[in-house]
Amino acid sequence: MKKLTLIILILFVVPILTINLYAQPTSGLSAYYPFNGNASDASGNGNNGSVSGATLTADRYANSNKAYSFDGTNDGITISTTSNLNNTFAGSHTISVWIKLDSEPTILKFVVDACKPGAGGELGDQRGIRFTSYTTRPTFKWVTTSASYQVHSSQGLTTGNWHHVVGVFNGSSGKIYVDNSLRGSSSSSGSGTPIDRMKIGTISAGGSDPGWFPGDLDDIRIYNRALSSSEIEELYYEGEAVNTPNTPTGSSSGKVGQSMSFSTGGSSCNLGHSVEYQFDWGDGNYSSWGSSSQSYKYNNIGTYSIKARARCQSHTSVVSGWSGGKSITISGHSLSISISPSGAGNVTKNPDKTGYNHNENVQLTAEASPTYEFDHWGGALSGDTNPKTIR
Predict the structure, then answer these.
(1) What are the phi and psi torsion angles at 257 (to 5°)?
(2) Which residues have CB under 8 Å from 25's CB, separation 6+?
(3) Torsion of CA 384, 388, 389, 391, to 10 degrees
(4) 138-174 pLDDT, tens per residue?
(5) Residue 238 above 90 pLDDT?
């Protein structure tokens, strides 16, 4: 009897290759001093400052002329307060400031100081952010109809480094935050009282010592409400950014169901925090946030554009833009079957289709014509098992 030889060729179709900043809270902003070349009030409320001695310097991001330096001897900024700012202190309020302290104070030093002096301009009811003698721990002071109160931070500032200090009075207690962490709180009674003057870097009125501040100050904000901890976090991370990652690299072709790896990188956070990555696979699906190298399996034939973005691991709301796209073409597997000699039989496929997924099982059954019998498989297959399952 004549022998039937089936040659199975598994063909693989050759494919054709076809960069978030955090927003700061603005509700209830009575005064804002970004020190962008001057001491003007950027809130639009007209509480502008008059500079005496203080000089422009680089801010915490090394941007020139974006902060003020105070020599600790005779530098200060006098604020022309409006009723809006004066009455801010009569209720709940928040003072936020970035501080770079040059040295540990040996006497009382004022960062932001406001008051409404008594008759004759003697030492009034000072309140604001300050440093007491022989400590780098900042203090927040507020005044009510009952008394004056203050709360000291449990954490000191490292001299020569920028730190974010926030004092909050919510109507019944005061809190102080340093670098996004609550570092002290104290209760109080009575309601807040208004002011009629304010200075930066020195005492606002009266006193035997003007308390000249030694160091740099920037981004001073005063709100007529108590900010929440999440809003303080927004201020702390203001200006943080992550740059856009590189266009992903990896295979330009693949099969349906095949696991393929892709890599990106090149992103960093301007505050030095670690970053993590996410991939957009181009088919409506996204990877989890994680490593700069990740794998994926496509479920459908087509050409896709793979992109990546990065975010800060410490503050996940800070996200970069998407990278450029990496093109990949996904095809299915196909089977090419020839019979030797020609016309000696046929082969059925189960499932019977033109394209198959990666690692999909296919059962082949050889059926010999009359006067022929099946002998063996050839080409990419071997053996004489009939039917035969491949994948």
Answers:
(1) 85, 0
(2) 223, 227, 231, 234, 235
(3) 50
(4) 999 999 999 999 999 999 999 999 999 999 999 999 9
(5) no
Residue extents of the structural domains in the chain: 2-13+333-390, 43-236
Query: Does the predicted model carry a pTM greater than 0.85?
Result: no
> CA 13, CA 334: separation in Å to the nearest integer?
8
Residues 6+ apart with CB under 8 A from 26: none
- Paired residues of 96 in beta bridges: 166, 221
Instruction: For residue 335, give both structure tokens.
Output: 């089977």
Tokens of 67: 């902060």
Residue type, 272: G
User: How, if at all, do strands 362-368 and 372-379 pair?
Assistant: unpaired
- Six token digits for residue 368: 């010999």
List, in order, residues 6 or more apart from 59 with CB less than 8 Å away: 35, 66, 67, 98, 218, 219
Interval 305-357: pLDDT, tens: 999 999 999 888 899 999 999 999 999 877 888 888 888 888 888 988 877 77
Distances (CA, A) of 358 to 40, 216, 254, 256: 66, 63, 9, 6
Residue 118 confidence (pLDDT): 63
Mean pLDDT for the chain overall: 89
Amino acid at residue number 319: V
CATH (residue range 43-236): 2.60.120.200
Per-residue confidence (pLDDT) for residue 149, from 0 to 100: 96
Instruction: Provide long-range contacts, Cβ within 8 A and 24+ apart, for 18-21.
Output: 18/303, 18/327, 18/329, 19/242, 19/243, 19/244, 19/245, 19/320, 19/321, 19/323, 20/241, 20/242, 20/311, 20/317, 20/318, 20/319, 20/320, 20/321, 21/238, 21/239, 21/240, 21/241, 21/318
301's tokens: 């034939």
Percent of the chain with pLDDT over 70: 91
